[in-house]
Amino acid sequence: FIRVYQGHGWLDALLSAATLAVAAIPEEFPVVFSFFLGVGVYRLAKRGALVRRAVSVETIGRITQICTDKTGTITAGQLKLTHVDAASPLSEPEVLFYAGAASNPDGTDPVDQAIFALSKERELKTPLRTRVIPFTEDRKRETAFFENQGRTFCSMKGSPETILSKCTLLSEERNKWLDRTSSWARDGHKLLAVGFCEVTATELRNGKEPDSGFQFAGLLAFEDPARPEVHPAIEYCGKNGIRVLMITGDHPQTAAAIAKDIGLGKGQPIVISAESDPEKFEADWLKANPDFLRSADVIARCNPIQKLRVVKALKSFGEIVAVTGDGVNDVPALKAADIGIAMGVRGSRSAKEVSSIILSDDNFSTIVNAIREGRQLFSNLRLSFEYLLLFHIPFVLSAAIVPLLGYPLLYRPAHIVWLELIIHPTALFAFQQAATSENDGAPERRVSFFDRRDALLVLLVGLAVTTALIISFVTGLSENSDANHGRAKIMALLPLWSAGLAVFLTKGKSRTANIVAAVSLLCSVLLIQTKWLAEPLHLTPLRGLDWLKVCGTVAAAMAIFFILRRRVSSR
User: Cα–Cα distance between 556 and 464 in angstroms, integer?
Assistant: First the structure.
């Protein structure tokens, strides 16, 4: 309507409106976002992290806190029963006999499998169980009834503290076994205790578990060493502002030994027992004492409810939390986390269903590799969006302001198509930089996409380039009284600005960016300087002086961008 009011015809007015609309519609942004997420999903899959929700690829790059379990993630997950510490007068085979009775021969629990593996190696038979009370987090033990030589027995295995509390032992003897438990745990062993008692036929029929009166059989010490690749992964986290908190149900000494081995807490991990101080793991107490969790490296003897409270508390402190888990009991914490990461090998189906990412190898280093990829993707996506904004702001504003000032139409439909053919490949492919495998040199972690200083930088540079475009067109128009000459200067300036942005934002390290920039410049020069191509496009070939002016204008704009960007980065 403004163009009609200015005296231009309806065809010019409709063309102006259509040109502005096509230039202004930001169709590149959703396309680029979807494309980058797809590339991220592919790259994470190559590293062993299977993504169920594509948006997690971008979120994982902003992770500030990892809550990881120990067995199978930090460690190799291949438990081996290496020591059987029998209580007098029992022998090691007898301890294994009662431990096997309290284990599930058809289950997938690594502990049970390790017990049966050693029993098979020593050619020991396991009794047939008649009734089972399974392990739960609150009970911390598994109990089974069985018959042997016409007598009925009840056998249990579980945490040493729980089993010792059920056994008939003198105080000195109980303390002795607790000391031996700590001694084994300090060497990094996972500890279980075994107890048994004889029951009557009536007690068997009732199916009620005896609460006391058990005879202590001994300790089982399992070895599960830390994965060698976890230590450098922990170092990467420390250098890049990502806190790692190991949450495990194991003995505090066992957890401390593994944490020290992988370098948590710089080799001096702070270990907290959730069993010893349960009141400190209430939701209100955790939220009121943020330094409590921030100072801890390991939480041992932690049950699923406490793990959930820890995750919620960390999120309330502003942390972006990733949680690993494999069992049904981990589902609440996985669901509450910003990124739930399930174990692909030993994880339960319910854990996988609520998680955003599934690890194909159950390895902690895979999580760190995924974070590295996510961080690189976030950086790539941010650079691509910065490019689009720095190109679109002058593109759209010049398309609107020039006709509204009463000058001839700046962009013809062919020019819009031409510029879109430059914008799309550059935004999609020029910024697809791969994640570095080194600990150093990773992109800076950012929680927000653009902060106020970034937005102000983009706006100021965009307005500066807009001003340069309008002045170039108006001066080109006044020099020859030919709109095609002014358009030619603009169609030389914008591709050169695009190429400069692509090379500058990637620091010249992206081969793809350099190729895209070179091809777009070469095509633009050919289209402008080849007379039989320029005329149908409503352009006039430029002289050498015109090209110098175009290059000088872009160089000045790049200098302004460089100076402002350095000032923003230094603050």
Answer: 10
